Amino acid sequence: MKSFLPAVIFLFSLVVNAGAQSICGTTAYKQQMVKSDPSLIEVFRNIEEQIAAENNKTNGNFAMRDTTANEIIYIPVVIHLLYKKAAENISDAQIKSQLDVLNADFSMLNSDQANTPSAFKSLAGNARIQFCLARVDPQGHKTTGIDRKYTSQDLFTTNDEMKMADKGGAASWNSKHYLNIWVCRLSSRSLGYATPPGAAADKDGVVIAYDVFGTTGNLRAPFNKGRTATHEVGHWLGLIHMWGDTNCGDDHVDDTPKQQSYNFGCQNFPKLSNCSPDSNGDMFMNFMDFSDDACMNLFTRGQVKRMRALFAQNNIRNSFLASFACDSTLAVGGPLPTTVTHDVVQPAVPVAAAIKIYPSPVNTVTTIECKGATALTIKTLSIFNSLGMKVFTARLNQEKTRIDLTNLTRGIYIVHIGDGKDKFTTRIIKQ
Ligand SMILES: [Zn+2]
Fold it and tell me: Does the chain have fewer CB atoms within 10 Å around its N or its C terminus?
């Protein structure tokens, strides 16, 4: 359901359902944010207006950069893993299992979508968003994307101390280019919380309890299918709970049925409430409800539109389209990017931060952007196919060069830029 007065409804939505706080702390956190900084109401209102303007203008089919509306958005993720006890120092495999869940859920590849009731199946939406563990850190160096740190704190709460190095936490990486996920022990029943778009840069991100993260390891059933992170990343991308955080409230999405409140456990379809618009009742299996992990299986098309609108030009997550830390090979199931090199000539301007190629995947024209000191030198661009054959060359002598790759066949290509030691290698996907 969707209101024509989102700003007004937003204020009502700050009414917290106390029973829900212990599961997802986002609503209470957002309420606290606004209480301590009332100017955020204006920030949130502006973001709502930009979402509405984008969707009104293009009905969700906007071209985000130089490519089609179907562009896959790649989000580099850094995991700040904070542990005191050995059990909290979860394995790489557990972390990767969470990335797998995010990638499935945000590309409508989750196998349990078969469980979506037929009445709602046509509403399911593919967000076309992929997540990778960051391959390049903010300094331009190689990284695993996993930042492990011993902490003296027994547990953390929604006061954000896990984001502060001097409080036993870990400082965020540039939140314009990385999704920061803090994984740690949280108090009592808390599963996680997220900052809504518009939060302070050093707080921006998602926090998840270590024992509900991923699908393998010592997990707290029934939150053992990685859906806490799916839900919280949904919040990070502007989604609101199905009931609009108040009795029969508004979630700013026009294809989700109105529902009275949250659902726990596994409900039977249909589940009707006082404000159900029709006999289909609550969409309790939506990722933005509180159902058990095994009983949630979709975002709607309307929710997808809302999330993707944040990446449109001038909107708050647009900077991710220029983030180069992903080297998207992980997201498409390819090998690790062993070809990425960062032979930095000017340490102050890491090559990875100075050279950007977008979009990837590319349909026709791609843009090579060389900023800062590296742009001062003329560079050679060479593109090789998977057999190592050079299929394209160009000279780059300006900050932005557009090249037409229409004639390349579909596949993954290696891109070399630079001369001598000052070189940069990455991959590009041709659609
Ligand atoms: Zn939530």
Answer: C
Q: Which residues surround ligand 1, an ion (CB under 5 A)?
A: 24, 26
| CA quadruple 283, 223, 265, 277: dihedral, nearest 10 | -10
What single-letter DSSP state applies at residue 142?
B
Cα of 3 to ligand 1 centre, how many Å? 20
Structure tokens at 406: 């229409």
Report the separation in Å between the CA atom of 69 and the middle of ligand 1, taken as the mean of its atom positions: 28
CA–CA distance, 71 with 76 (Å, rounded to integer):
16
Q: Which residues contact 367 (CB under 8 A, 6 or more apart)?
A: 65, 66, 356, 357, 358, 400, 401, 402, 403
DSSP-derived secondary structure letter, 70: T
Buried b (16+ CB within 10 A) or exposed e, 254-274: ebbbbbbbbbeeebebeeebe
Give 50-108 pLDDT, tens digit per residue: 998 888 776 555 444 433 456 789 899 999 999 999 999 999 999 999 999 999 999 99
What's 339-430's CATH class? mainly beta
CA–centroid distance, 339 to ligand 1, in Å, is 39
pTM higher than 0.70 for the full model? Answer: yes
Contact 60, 308 (CB under 8 A): yes
Which tokens sit at 374? 């590296």
Q: What is the DSSP string of 15-26?
A: S--GGGTTTB-H
Give the distance (Å) from ligand 1 centre to CA of residue 23: 8
- Range 102-137 burial, b when 16+ CB lie within 10 A, else e: bbbbbbbebebeeebbeebeebbbebbbbbbbbbbb
For the chain, domain boundaries: 6-309, 339-430
In tens, the pLDDT along 17-41 reads 444 446 899 999 999 999 999 999 9
Taken in order 239, 243, 246, 250, is the CA torsion positive or negative?
A: positive
Other Cβ atoms less than 10 A from the Cβ of 431: the count is 17
Average pLDDT over the chain, rounded to whole? 83
3-class state of residue 206 by DSSP: strand
Ligand 1 centroid distance, CA of 20 (Å): 9
Residue among 48, 54, 232, 369 flagged as catalytic: 232
If one looks up domain 6-309 in CATH, what number appears?
A: 3.40.390.10
